[in-house]
Every structure is written in structure tokens, then in C-alpha cells.
Write a structure and sequence with these properties.
heterodimer, A: 433 residues, alpha/beta, Rossmann fold, GMP Synthetase, Chain A, domain 3, 2 domains, 4-stranded antiparallel beta sheet, 21 strands, B: 132 residues, alpha+beta, VC0802-like, Alpha-Beta Plaits, 6-stranded antiparallel beta sheet, globular
Chain lengths: 433, 132
Amino acid sequence: MIWNSKIECMSREEMRVLQGEKLKKIVAHAYQNSPFYKARFDEHGVKPEDIQTIDDIVKLPFTTKQDLRDNYPFNMLAVPMSEIVRLHASSGTTGKPIVVGYTEKDLDNWTEGVARCLTAYGLDKSDMVQVSYGYGLFTGGLGAHAGVQKIGAVALPTSSGNTEKQLQLMQDFGSTAIACTPSYALYMTEEIRKRNIDMNNIKLKVGVFGAEPWTNNMRKELEEKLNIKAYDIYGLTEISGPGVGGECECQNGTHLWEDLFYPEIVDPVTLQPVAPGEKGELVFTTLDKWGMPMIRYRTRDLTSLNYEKCACGRTAVRMSKIMGRSDDMMIIRGVNVFPSQVESILLEFPEYEPYFFIEVDRVNNTDTFVIQVEVKPEYYTDQINQLIKLRQRLASRIQSVIGIQPDIKIVEPNTIERSTGKAKRAIDHRKFE
Amino acid sequence: MLIRQLSVFLENRQGKFAEIARLLGNNNINMKAFTVSESDDFGIARIIVEREKIDTAYNLLKSHSYAVSIHQVNYLNSPNKPGTMAIAMEELSKAGVSIEYMYAFADDDSHNSHLVIRTNNDELANRILSEL
């Protein structure tokens, strides 16, 4: 099934014309209404008139996550606050998350993207989707929720956590799809096994999985254990949220809704576009987002794009699985984590040395997040409780700033590598193929 | 009386205590008593050495990058027979002193028992124990 076949199956030529028209409008809007973009374009010597077709996009300067932080909270908005109807935020460095404001139309477009994804997964008004993404500032819950209602299905807003209740409702209500991170879904499979839940009581047929990278092996495992088809949903807060793209029944690449979110692949070093089909950094321009347009936003996700028509009939470009990052961000249990966040939190504690080492792995389908730290010599004590309390204070602080609980490991003095240059501060043992 | 005790932070890894024992042994420092308490991934070794060697031991461990500190703890030497420890504990408890940790060791001939006691008020504990 195709939600919007006119757009999703449009010829490439028509799509480029449409993208060009939309780009012209959004660039003019950004220039006229956002002091940030006006300054950035002027500095770069580019005027809205220079943008006539989609090919002119390369004339525009890039936008980065740092720009969002520097303009916290509202300096990047391109409409008055009276036009904004929703704010979302994602965790950022200490005390400074990034904030995105949406107009009514922006929410409609975002929801349109989610509706296209859900329809591509084979869902319709006869379905009930258990939305186990977190509801709140995180875009996952509310984003998926709106899309579910849009296609006329039943939204079951369980939000994340409380697995026992999740599984109970799943059986009692007969949810036919679940939307959550793939690692949480794997965790659920463990719980189902532990509780000896009869799989006949579970009616799931589709998994809507995103917010973190996952592998084809995970897909296989989820499909076998839950007896479902597991599909990728892609998105990021800066661009809207989940539903920037999604897989179709072919499970051969994530279709991006490029009439709304125009993708480019650039070399992360030279920032020049790469040859078609080559791997590089994914860059998005929001073509129909008015509250806070993103012009050539560098996602830091490494991937490649395939413009061949898909066997499902869609012409919408397909993105390969995310192959890594061009920065040091890690996604742990669905949460974005930068080593610099850990560093700035550590600096708040006089008891700790400013050195740390992060180790990430996946054990029993759950991401582990271990931070090695050293205590300053004068704070070592003969009392183990004091060290345990000190460790707990750091863990709680990290949990409240970043959003996930780390396992703090105090190590002996001088065991963490000191380096004046680029110290390797993290290692990720998870395998994403 | 109050005596000085070494405390060494140790990661919970095989051979950690052997390293310390070897280091002290090679430098002719005898451990009179020790105890190790541990959490899931680290432990603290508390060590009593001969009084005149404690600073040497401290500097030695420090120079080998160990997280070592010196703390005052109570030391009680009493006859090794039933009931003596009960009396000491009762007196501390009456005075509102609570025990953070303690460990005991005996003489070669077992006539006397030696108790190391760390409390929430070591000065007060010292006064009480001296009057026993």
C-alpha cells in the first residue's frame, strides 16, 4: 500500500522540479525571517535569488548541531512564537539541549511522513499500534502517535518502560504493531520468554523500529522471535523526528520523503557532494518546514543514496543502513551521547579527575554504557561507602543530563590514557555491520 | 589506642592484592593485619604494618601510583577469651558510637586478640576503649 502515490512514485524529473520550487520558497522564507540565516547567507555571499532550481542548493552554506546550540533556545525560529504550536528538545551538552519549534503545518508535514512509513509497513485503519517510544520532549512518542492516528489506526500510547504492563496490554488489547527502539523490542522478547507468555496471545505483525542503528541480524532475530516483519523508521529531531523516511515491504533501503526533506551526501571532510551512490555524510534541507527551517543540515550520519526505482513501485530515494558517524556521537539505548557531555559533567565534580573512558557494548540485547573515571588522590578513603556514594552521585547527574544511567567504574590512578592531542575517549564494541 | 592504617584502593582484578603484597614484601615491610572489603568492581585494602614502617610503605605505594591514604583507627588489644569483645561493643554502643568497619587478628600464641575498629567518632571510641 502507498499512502501518497502521487509523491512517493513521482518521476525523478518531476520530483526535482517540485524540490526546486519548494527550495526557492523556503530559502526566501529563511532569509527574510530568520536573523540566523540572513547573517549566515550574507556571510557566505549568497542571496535567495541565486536559488532557482534544486541544483543551486550547493551554493548554500551548511548548518550544524553547534548552530542549534549557539542559538538556544529560539534564535533559529523563522516565525513569531505565536505561530509555533509545539516544541521538542533533545539532550545536548550540559544544560543546553537543542530545541525545535513546529508550526501547525510543520506538524502536518511530519505526520504525513510518518503516515507514509506506516502505510509502507502494511498498516492501516484496522491496526492497533502500541507506541512504546517515550512521550515527551523526545520526538519519538508524539511523532509516531500522530502518524498512527493519521492513517486511522488505533494509537496505544504506552510510552517507554514498564515492560510488564506493556506485555499485558499487548495481549489484552491485541496490538498488531509495536513502535519502539529495536533494542527495547529485543528486551521484550527476553521478557516474553522469561514469563512463559504464549506467543499465540500476541497478535503483533509489524515492528516500527528506529531511534538507534540496528543490524540485519537484529532484524532477523526480532522477526523470528516476535513473528513480525521488522521495519526501519528514520528521523532526527532537528529535521522533524521519526518519519523522515522508512522502509517498504522490500526491506531494501529506507525511502526518504524527499519532497519534505531533501537529502544530499557530501564528503565529511571537503563537504563536496560525492558521486551518486557513494558513501558520505547525509545532509538534509527541510523543504516544507516553516517554524525552524534547516538548510543543508549536517546529520553526521554516514550512508549512501540509491535513486533507482524500488520494486515496491516507489521512486522515493532509498538510503542504505547508517554505516557510522562522522563525529563521536554514540546512540546508546536510543539516546544520543557525546563524550564531551560526560566531560563537562565530570568537571562539575571536584572529586574526580577530568579523565574518562567510555565503553559501549550490547549484552543480552541491552546496550551497556560503562564510564571509567579516576578519583583524585585526596578523595580516596578507607570507607567503601563513601566511594559508592560518590559513584552514585555521578551516575545520577549523568542520568539527569544525558538521559540514561551509566555504569560508573572507578579505576586506579593513572590508568586512563592522558593525551594532549586527540585522546580516544570511547570505544563501541557493538556490531552494526 | 589510636593507630595509623594504610588504605589502598584496588580495582577488582585478579592479582591486584598479590601486586601489593609483593611490593611490600620486596621492601621488607611486614603486614601485621589486613582486610579487604569490596563492591562489585573495586575494593579497599586496609593494612596495618609495623609502626615505624608506615610512612615508608605509604611512599612506596604512592610512588607506584596506588591510591593510598592513611587514617587513624582504634586498636584494642585484649585477652583472647569469651565475652571481652562483647564488653567493648556494648560500651561503644551505649556512648552512641557506631562501627563503620572492623577486623580482628590473633597473636601467634593466641593469648591476645587484636581488634581494629573504625567508628563514626574515633576520638570518643578511643577514650571509651582506654577505660575498659
